[in-house]
Design brief:
single chain, 484 residues, mainly alpha, 18 helices, 70% helix
């Protein structure tokens, strides 16, 4: 390895040691030594080799670091790389060009790591991840952690769960440009936020832990009730840990406490009482539900968790999307020819069923990938439905003029949807801006329709507005450059 690296520093290809022929005559060997003036044992080369070994140990740490500039590990890596850069600068090259070239390449390697470290820590996507994480942290602190620490009641409503779900969705849409540190940061933020969401959702309907049995039923019930109260406290502590709001506690400490609760419950004598046994089982399940979220400290260290290119579920979704793309091309081709006989709705419905069965493993990125595939299928289905409705429409003489106006807009929307389905460009393209403008004009046309009190027109206009907005959202989704 050392010889290979030294050869790279001098810009020479590594030949596997073929130049080191020990059977040549001494005179020829001396001539070759004259042609190779700097032996790897030269002091300058030895020092550069020592730097290279340190760079090899720091490189993987830099390439997978997913934190911010104020993190302790960032400052440590920056300090060590800066020290190596100074060490390289102090190497005495004796004014020799080849040594100077080797030192320059070593310095460039260290500078490259420093630059990569800083770029990832200050990347706009990394800042976006941190901003969303801070919003979630502040929300959880105000609504869950602070009330629990002050001895109050933690109110967990649907609005809190919905806000967290919106933050999860926004996190999945943060672009990482394929950078491992950004993918890792996004994945770690998502796993923690989804874990908190899971804990809170289980408490949405039941704000306090139930105590279904009276202490007078059996002496063990009082002990179980006490454990239930401790579990309620542990739940808030877990949420604080996951969101980084607990400075003193650790996942290992909370795991130990919950395990002790389990041991205490196992030691209880329920004397064959089925009701008490079921009650204890309920509490044990509550504890197990919290324990499963306590292994997140090392979550994200394995690249297979956040680099989803080889994930089986993603492959399954991509296979469905390829099939959908083929069907979409067929639908549009027949549509342009005026042939409405090609209606693969049954096939599209089967694809929706297939997507519904894809295992997301509670991974928010896989869930988002599946959601997008579902939207692609539904866009084709709604296009086919509207085309069929337009063909089969037979307006009567008593049709309200406003109702007719809505159908005229729907006809225009159907033509625009065909263009959107076939669009394969970017937001900066003129065709994108033209489609967006035309769709907006159709929304304005619907807004200008006066129902004049006609209920069917009101309903039709409302559905047409929703349909136009769905087309705009689909166009936006196709061009937002989302990635796994």
């Amino acid at each position: 390895m050392a010889v290979r690296w030294l050869c790279s520093l001098f810009g020479k290809p590594f030949d596997g040691g073929k130049r080191m022929d020990h059977g040549v005559p001494q005179q020829q060997h001396q001539m070759e030594q004259q042609q190779q003036p700097y032996h790897p044992q030269h002091p300058a080369m030895m020092r550069l080799y020592e730097v290279q070994k340190e760079v090899e140990s720091l490189g993987p740490q830099v390439c997978t670091f997913s934190g911010m500039q104020n993190d302790r590990d960032y400052k440590r890596l920056e300090r060590e790389l800066t020290r190596l850069l100074l060490d390289v600068d102090q190497v005495d090259t004796e004014g020799k060009p080849e040594l100077q070239g080797a030192r320059k390449r070593a310095a460039q390697e260290v500078e490259g790591l420093l630059r990569y470290l800083e770029e990832n820590a200050t990347h706009p996507s990394r800042l976006a991840i941190e901003e969303l994480s801070n919003k979630a942290r502040q929300l959880i602190d105000e609504r869950v952690v602070v009330p629990q620490r002050s001895g109050g009641v933690t109110e967990i409503g649907d609005d809190l769960v919905d806000t967290l779900q919106e933050l999860v969705l926004r996190l999945t849409q943060v672009k990482t440009e394929g950078r491992v540190p950004l993918r890792k940061a996004r994945y770690r933020a998502l796993t923690r936020l989804c874990a908190v969401q899971d804990v809170l959702e289980s408490r949405t309907q039941q704000q306090t832990l139930s105590l279904p049995l009276s202490g007078e039923t059996h002496e063990s019930v009082n002990r179980i009730n006490q454990v239930m109260v401790k579990v309620s406290v542990a739940r808030s502590q877990l949420v604080a840990l996951l969101m980084g709001l607990s400075g003193r506690d650790s996942c290992a400490h909370l795991s130990r406490i919950l395990t002790e609760m389990q041991v205490e419950l196992d030691a209880l004598d329920v004397s064959g009482n089925a009701a008490i046994r079921n009650y204890r089982k309920q509490v044990v399940e509550e504890i197990n539900g919290l324990l499963k979220h306590l292994d997140l400290e090392g979550e994200g260290e394995d690249t297979r968790r956040y680099d989803l290119a080889q994930n089986n579920s993603i492959r399954e979704i991509e296979a469905v999307r390829a099939h959908v793309s083929h069907l979409r091309e067929g639908v549009l081709r027949h549509c342009y020819m005026g042939d409405l006989s090609f209606r693969p709705k049954a096939e599209l419905q089967s694809l929706l069923t297939h997507l519904d069965q894809v295992d997301t493993a509670k991974n928010p990125c896989i869930r988002e990938a599946r959601r997008r595939a579902v939207v692609e299928v539904q866009a084709i289905i709604t296009f086919l439905d509207l085309r069929e409705a337009l063909v089969c429409r037979q307006p009567g003489p008593s049709e309200h003029p406003s109702h007719r106006s809505v159908w005229l807009v729907l006809g225009s929307l159907s033509d625009l949807q065909a263009q959107v389905l076939g669009f394969d460009g970017k937001r900066a393209d003129k065709s994108y801006m033209m489609l967006e403008e035309l769709l907006t004009k159709q929304l304005l046309a619907l807004d200008a329709v006066d129902p004049q009190g006609d209920e069917s027109t009101k309903m039709a206009r409302k559905q047409a507005v929703k349909f136009a907005q769905n087309i705009l959202n689909y166009l936006d989704m196709k061009t937002d450059e989302w990635e796994y």
